[in-house]
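User: quick one, fold this
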Amino acid sequence: MATKALTSKELYEIYKAEVIARGSDIIDFAEGSMNDIDAGAMTTAINEAQELLVSEFLKTFFGSANGDDLEILAIDRFGSRFARPSETQSTVDVTFSRPTTAAGNVTIPAGTIIKTSKDASGQEVRFSTSFEVVMTGLSVVSSAISVGSGANTKVGVGKINVIESALTDTSIVVTNDAQAAGGEDKQSDDEYRETIRSLVESLAGATEAAIKGSIQALPEITYVSVVTILMKVREVDDGGTPIGDIFRIPYVRIYVADADGNFSQSLLTLAENVIYSVRAAGVKIEILGALSTEINWTASITLNPAGPNYAELSNDTSKIKEDMANYLDNVLDVGDGFVRSTANSYILSIWGPAGTGDLTSFTTSIPTGNVAGAVGTKLVSGTMETI
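Assistant:
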């Protein structure tokens, strides 16, 4: 029994050997002979049947199915939610402004059409505002979504400069201070396979992988980073007096951006809406726009033998490492850099003489220098170590 698809040559040789083995009087296999013609026709038919069977078999695997067959397979296995995402609209925050307030308050309705100037070929990209805003001063910000879809709607900074809809103040102008986010073409097979994997992860429900997978399955969002923060809390009585011990509660921050590292409020709203299908009840999740960069932090510490937690910290410094992670994940904002002296002071304020008194020194050795911040980038915790 064959264990692989055979070539036409191999099939021909099998036929020839079988004829000769049966002791046939007609064993002429010269080119053009009847045996040669019969064997050629038979092997061609068998080879085509093999190729058909193999191609149909490959359609049953996500790694080898392509085109419509890949989508049919995904929907058949997991349902309509796994259909190939179509091309997507782009979202952008725009600023309406005017030189004076002489016209008074101006309502800019939801659905106001704004657009780019026509290019050399006469094409323009139109956007529609997502919600109503009222201009009381000289400027107001609104979110907008493209009327069309696809990568051509991902317009650059300052490209949106025409107000198509009529407003009561004709002096109002519009612009976008950031590139539009989202705006992707229909996914290729390779991109669609990654979407399928993310959707499969989301089926787990409430896990970090499920939350991340549900957002990554959105074609508008490319970069997703999930950060779980352990926040120190303490119960207080009605008068504000602390009662009980300090304990930690987790909450989650998720940083997202499109393929170009851009984001808008509309893009964040897409992510916020999708997490409710997998978020555990009562869990607080914040969606923020940024690209995340992990920072590994190692520090040398000296414990105070007279400190209240000396026995515990001598065996396990995980609480100190949790506060190191919290500094990166929670204290530093988007765009902030890591300054070693400031970070050292933060930890000593908790565990040093001004805090619990458990540390007499805390000195950062890794990173070896300060880490500069960048617009649209959030530093998050990687590996936290104490030595």
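User: anything notable?
Assistant: DSSP finds nine helices and 15 strands in the chain.
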